[in-house]
Amino acid sequence: MAGETDLSRLLQSMTPQFNPGQYVFCCVAADLDCSALHPIASLREAEGLSLVLPSDVADANGLSYDYVAAWITLQVHSSLAAVGLTASFSAALAQAGVSCNVVAGFHHDHIFVPIERAERALFTLRALSAAALPEPV
Fold first, then answer.
1. Where in this chain does the record put each DUF2241 domain (predicted)?
2. Which fold does the domain 7-131 belong to in CATH?
3. pLDDT class of 108 with cuts at 50, 70, 90
């Protein structure tokens, strides 16, 4: 099934969901076999392999990190070709003083925010979604 592309409908139906736990971004050697770590996400960069992991997995494996995040998933099935969704929610979060790191999956957008700002981020995303709802007739 194709994902949604209409920005208004995307915003109205974002349905942000908090995923329990604490998550970290680590960088390891590009040739490391990380399959046993079961990363949430990975991305090969010139400097190495970036991994998003639960903090307890990183700790248990002696991996260093600087940033502890909460993970929020937008439940709307957004198309990878949709225009404006990331810009809209990142602008709203920025205005609320919340940094965000976004990972786009095939079906959903995943937002990593500072753990101490998770509630503020959820409130902001829900307010953005509510503001996009059409006025009652």
1. 2-69
2. VC0802-like (3.30.2130)
3. very high
Helix, coil or strand: residue 73: strand
Between the CA of residue 61 and those of 13, 20, 48, what are the distances in Å? 38, 21, 17
Rounded Cα–Cα distance for residues 122 and 125 (Å): 5
* Whether the predicted model's global pTM rises above the 0.90 cut: yes
For the chain, give every domain's residue range. Answer: 7-131
Asked if residue 25 lies in contact with residue 50, where contact means CB atoms within 8 angstroms, the answer is: yes
Nearest residue to 51 (alpha-carbon basis) of 62, 59, 95, 65: 65
Extract the tokens encoding 74: 């937008």
With contact defined as beta carbons under 8 Å apart, do 115 and 70 qualify? Answer: yes
- The model's pLDDT over 41-61, given as tens digits with 9 standing for 90+, comes to 999 999 999 999 999 999 999
Q: What's the one-letter identity of residue 66?
A: D
Q: How far is 36 from 57, CA to CA, in rounded Å?
A: 10
